[in-house]
Amino acid sequence: MVPTDSRSKNSVNQNKESMSFADELERVMTAFGRAAVRMGIPGHLPESAIPFDKSAYWAMVCIGEAGPMRLSDLSAQLGLDLSTVSRQVRDLANAGLVERTPDPIDGRAMLLNLTTEGTKLQTSIAKVRRSRMDEVLEGWSKEEMGDLLKVLSRFTEGVARVSGKIACHGVPTHISQSKAESNALASSPLTENETTK
What we know:
This protein is 62% helix and 5% strand. The protein is mainly α. The protein folds into two domains: 1-40; 44-195, Winged helix-like DNA-binding domain superfamily/Winged helix DNA-binding domain (Arc Repressor Mutant, subunit A, Orthogonal Bundle). The chain has a two-stranded antiparallel ribbon. Helix 3 (71-78) packs across helix 4 (82-94).
């Protein structure tokens, strides 16, 4: 029979090891998230003369992948406050990158979709990102790249399972907003159609 003190010490050691791994994983995840954002969106795209707000890029990616969707669904997918996403969508719409069309099932709601220009811009940005990714992965073997995809996919699926939310592919799950930004945008006017679920 194992003495109580021994069991307690083993439990403490396991907790320390677990906390140490969790801390290290958190550090790596933070670094990975920052790296993904830094690699992210080019500041200048010769293919397009449209002024582009980088903060709205992930909203554009999500709309492009999911097809026509409501503002409330986009907000949930991105994990951002409705007022923040509403502002981003207005900017994208004003730039001619996103359009709103009536929901055929519920005429009171509006669906968001990329315009032709929006699709072109997203394609241009994706091309630049792929080129940068090729540079980052230079020297990696196919096996190493396969292992990376497998581990990241498994981790992402675990996060989705625990949180109950599945983010759009290609959209960082760490996207969040500051409390100050949330408060500043809380009074942002939303139309009834935009807030209808």
